[in-house]
Amino acid sequence: MLGNSFLNNIGGELKLSFSGEEFEKYNPADQNQLIGKFQKSNIEDLEEAVKIAKIAFKTWKNTPAPQRAEILYKAAEITSAEKNKLAEILTQETGKPLIEALGEIQEVIDTYLFFAGEGRRLYGMTGQSELYNKSIITIRQPIGICGLISAWNFPSAVPSWKIAPALISGNVIILKPSEKAPLSGYLLIENLYKAGLPKGCASIIFGYGDLGQAMAEHDDIKVISLTGSTTIGKKVSEICGAKLKKCALELGGKNAIVALEDANQALLLEGILWGAFGTAGQRCTSTSRLILQKSDWNKSFIEKLIKAANNLKIGNGLNQVNQIGPLISAEHREKVNDFVSRAVKDGAKLICGGQKLESGDLKNGYFYAPTILTDVKPEMEIAKQEVFGPVLSIIEVNSFEEAIEIANNTDYGLSLAIYTQNINLAMQSTNQLEAGLTYINAPTIGAECGGASAFGGWKNTGNGSREGGILALDTYTQYKTIYLDYSEKLQKAQID
Ligand code: NAD
């Protein structure tokens, strides 16, 4: 399969792009390995997908939700059966270690199962009328064609967070995966059709940002859900805003672990290694700052941290001994390296890593050493901007209050964590931290899909929407309130 040409899947039919052009995608761990050639789609391909989706919506929106759920249950079963194959492809497409790719495919399964369950709920509300023999109910209804635009770093899980709530609610979808990781999304759509999804209900069109923008601009696409950088999110938000189009944005982060002087140091060390260097720091929730309360153990702890970071095994994620994969592209690696160089110029001290890894088995990939900077001041660029690489900045503080202030001192608000054994301070932090996700004694990564989970951020991380749980339904449904008057007379609200 790898190395093939992949066509657009327009409503269940494989189609060449009207552009007649393709783009290539290579493995970031081995730039000689072609993952595939993908159609470089244009507006005509989008028009075709929209036309087919419009027809499919008429039937799908009226299909009973429990029947829609059957497709998601079946898709979960197929994904489960193919878990290893899908994870191996995901590893080669993104570079992330196989163990993480397996986790990501599990997240797709969990998401499908969770939203399939919603097929028998999709709760609305009932309320009391102020009048006799009258009832009020509010139901959720689908909106129409949803344009789903995704980032490269979770090319299976993130599209599934959008696809499952959209379909279960009775919408139809058009997915534009990231050009940097298009194959995993293709396989998701293929498996939905294998699971029995009616023709037309889902399409995938490959392409670049111009195609995403055309989706945002298209009047027949009624919802846009975008996961990506804050810069792109703002652009898409402007387009959707001008059209009063529903738009859900899941954007960048500048996440931090606050470590108080009574933190369990062994647990903290493990949490930092996973949070900062897992997925080579390329998660929206990656830990990029350690806000460390000054205490007598700081120096020895940082020494242990450097040793542990240097011991992490770096390489091709298919080799299961490796814990850290490459960055997604040569260009992105340059960007990360430039951040580190500027931080040093700004006065930070480089105490670990800070270089590209280009020798031996690593020579064909975009590997970067786990990097730690100390003497970072809260106003420095490295303390405020998203780096999206394996770079940890350590900021030392005197008190709990100062730690909270600095944790909140960025334009982002995705994920913040605290390590302490003081229950009062832990709970106070959950009130004071300005982020959509907060963790106690766990790193900033590790969100789950479930009823009480809500994935999303505050401030420039988004516009208030949530994924990965029941609140995701708010993006893909519109409310309708139905008044039932069985009094057999004219009753006047607020007047009778
Ligand atoms: P990106 O913003 O470069 O691209 C995201 C998607 O938007 C891609 O599909 C891209 O083709 C498309 N796009 C680009 N220009 C567009 C335009 N003008 N109009 C419409 N679509 C356009 O992001 P990326 O490099 O793929 O991913 C990394 C970013 O995503 C990081 O900032 C990361 O924090 C963020 N992210 C956020 C979450 C979250 O849930 N908050 C999850 C994963 C990644």
Number of strands: 24
Overall SS class: alpha/beta
Task: Give the biggest sheet.
Answer: 7 strands, mixed
Radius of gyration: 24 Å
Q: Taking all residues together, what is the mean pLDDT?
A: 98
State the assembly state of the protein chains.
Answer: single chain
> How is the largest sheet built, in terms of strand order?
15-18-19-14-13-21-22
How helical, in percent, are the residues? 25-40%
Give the name of the CATH architecture of the largest domain.
Answer: 3-Layer(aba) Sandwich
List low-confidence stretches.
Answer: none
**Shape descriptor:** globular
Which topology of the largest domain does CATH recognise?
Aldehyde Dehydrogenase, Chain A, domain 1
Bound molecules: nicotinamide-adenine-dinucleotide
Please name the fourth-level CATH homologous superfamily of the largest domain: Aldehyde Dehydrogenase, Chain A, domain 1
CATH class of the largest domain equals Alpha Beta
Strand percentage, roughly? 15-25%
Summarize the structure.
By secondary structure, the chain is of the alpha/beta class. The protein has helices spanning 43-60, 65-81, 83-94, 98-118, 157-168, 183-194, 209-217, 230-242, 265-277, 298-311, 330-345, 381-384, 400-407, 423-432, 473-476; strands spanning 5-6, 8-10, 13-15, 22-27, 30-39, 125-128, 134-142, 145-149, 172-176, 202-204, 221-227, 246-250, 255-259, 287-293, 349-352, 356-357, 367-368, 371-374, 391-397, 412-413, 415-419, 437-440, 458-459, 477-485. The protein is globular and about 80 Å long.
